[in-house]
Write a structure and sequence with these properties.
Order of helices and strands: EHEHEHEHEHEHEHHEEEEEEEHH
Helix content: 25-40%
Distance between the termini: 45 Å
Structural class: alpha/beta
Strand content: 15-25%
Strand order of the largest sheet: 8-9-10-7-11-12-13-14
Radius of gyration: 19 Å
Shape: globular
Number of strands: 14
Number of helices: 10
Length: about 325
């Protein structure tokens, strides 16, 4: 399938485009107002456009991946909906809940829309979900996540000039928490196959001199009473341990280390609650979450059953927005 990309920044260029290729798809076009991004895409043999509407009108792609700044998701998604082209949009759905609601209205009906929660597609997390579903640790008790990195005001992905919009309250809609925490919230729901029903957030702006949060702690409860805890941060040095996922059950503990993120691999183990013995759990360590996500979306576009859902994602965005808004009033 031919993919168009809206917003050809480092995530799209360095992770999603290779993931699409590895999944058997082909990036054929990009839409980006940046002359630099368009020149880079042209050098790669891609068709380039200023906007998504023009890319769609040219018939340059069958699917679209949106990776613009958060406040610029709405127009590309609306254009795809009007053209009947399936669209996979980066998380969060949008910078604000109003924008997310407008996107949901645009893609109502049979339109295939997916939020790019790539972590729900990581092979390690697939394996983890199977262990839970097969009663491998008994009744789940708690999900605990640490997902942190270092993003200072001058941060750049490759040492070159970079527009760090993730620290812009308007374009990003917030800071570390809106960027990182929704991955864990969605992943908790995917692992347990049930929604979060309560959420509380505490924010900090402690290390970096920008007008958004550089860290946050989230706590919540799922529909059946499983506890959720997540620490996300832009103020954690990347040489420190910073990517860990635990699911505690009545008969054991599942621990995924260095699986949350953009790359393949990591480790997954089960620790028995009776003996304390630790057993590795096998998974496909060669496939990145971006590759797995692209495969899943192409299958969905071909008519196969799937779990992409704007209804579910919008419900999570509403829960998150309420807690995030309250937290920011105290920051």
């Amino acid at each position: 399938m031919r993919w168009g990309i809206a917003g050809y920044g480092w995530v799209a260029r360095d992770y999603m485009a290779p993931g699409i290729a590895a999944a058997g798809g082909r990036v054929t076009a990009i839409a980006d107002p940046s002359p630099t991004a368009r020149a880079r895409a042209e050098a790669q043999g891609l068709a380039v456009f200023d906007g998504v509407a023009e890319m769609l009108a040219a018939g340059a792609c069958d699917l679209v991946y949106v990776a613009t700044p958060n406040d610029a998701h709405l127009d590309p998604v609306r254009a795809c909906a009007a053209a009947g082209v399936p669209v996979l949009c980066e998380k969060p759905i949008a910078a604000t809940l109003d924008q997310a609601e407008a996107m949901a209205a645009a893609v109502s009906g049979d339109m295939l829309y997916g939020t790019a929660f790539d972590q729900r597609h990581h092979p390690a997390h697939d394996a983890l979900a199977r262990v839970i579903a097969e009663d491998g640790i008994g009744r789940p008790v708690a999900v605990r996540i640490v997902y942190a990195c270092w993003v200072d005001p001058a941060w750049t992905p490759d040492g070159g000039a970079h527009d760090n919009w993730r620290a812009d309250p308007v374009r990003a809609g917030g800071g570390a928490v809106i960027d990182l925490a929704l991955h864990g919230l969605d992943l908790c729901q995917r692992l347990l196959d049930e929604p979060l029903v309560r959420l509380s957030i505490a924010l900090q702006r402690r290390i970096h001199a920008y007008p958004v949060d550089d860290g946050g702690m989230l706590t919540g409860v799922t529909a059946s009473g499983v506890l959720f805890q997540s620490h996300v941060a832009y103020n954690c040095a990347e040489v420190l341990p910073r990517r860990r996922l635990e699911v505690l059950g009545e008969r054991g503990l599942l621990v995924a280390t260095d699986t949350m993120g953009q790359t393949a691999g990591g480790t997954l183990v089960r620790r028995c609650a009776t003996t304390g013995d630790e057993t590795p759990i096998a998974f496909d360590a060669a496939t990145s979450p971006f590759t797995a996500q692209a495969k899943a979306f192409m299958r969905a576009a071909s008519g196969a059953p799937h779990d992409f859902s704007m209804t579910r994602d919008l419900a999570l965005m509403r829960l998150f927005d309420s807690a995030y808004g309250e937290a920011r009033s105290w920051l």
